[in-house]
Amino acid sequence: MSVQASQGWSHTSGIILRQQNVTASLNVGQRLELKALHAAAKTTIEYNPKRQPQACVMRLRTPPSTAILYPSGKMIVTGCLDTEDAQVRFRVLRHMEAANKFVRMLSAIVSTLVLKTSTVAIQNIVVACKLGFRLDLERLHYEHTQHASYEPELYPAVVFRLEQPKVVFMMFAEGRVVMTGAKTVLVMQRAFDVMYPLLAEYRKA
């Protein structure tokens, strides 16, 4: 069980879970001509066909966020991580606000563009914390090979795939933990509740 803290969410162990990012998505309901959009608003829309021919980028200052637009009409919104956004739930709302602003901006750029109503959906939340103790990654991986992978020469963390709820944990030797894969804060909290006893078991002296 976790309770809301001023800078994130506090677990019963005293560990503070801090949100790192939120990814939201929506579909504007029709295909987008990226070159035409960029030509109509070069100061608003970034487009580099040599680097990324299938996407262009829009940015907002308030709330600070980035939207990636695809020819299919799909829009991915991420960011909203300024220091005022300390509360996790508030950040989710800010992403929805940003997505709606991007849609209005897009509609204003091309007068012939008729945007259909679309629901903004949170696709992923990333949360991180510091355990306050080091982890024995080799033993953790050895005893949980069914759920964990560890290739220290490629990535310095054990990647543990929790089945219920479905959340991915990246656990570093110094005790830093990054969680991803959930769409709600409650799922993240529940996943950490499930995982914490195992993390404590592999505390390194």
TrEMBL record:
<protein>
    <submittedName>
        <fullName>Transcription factor TFIID-domain-containing protein</fullName>
    </submittedName>
</protein>
<dbReference type="GO" id="GO:0003677">
    <property type="term" value="F:DNA binding"/>
</dbReference>
<keyword id="KW-0238">DNA-binding</keyword>
<keyword id="KW-0804">Transcription</keyword>
<dbReference type="GO" id="GO:0006352">
    <property type="term" value="P:DNA-templated transcription initiation"/>
</dbReference>
<dbReference type="InterPro" id="IPR012295">
    <property type="entry name" value="TBP_dom_sf"/>
</dbReference>
<comment type="similarity">
    <text>Belongs to the TBP family.</text>
</comment>
<dbReference type="Pfam" id="PF00352">
    <property type="entry name" value="TBP"/>
</dbReference>
<dbReference type="InterPro" id="IPR000814">
    <property type="entry name" value="TBP"/>
</dbReference>
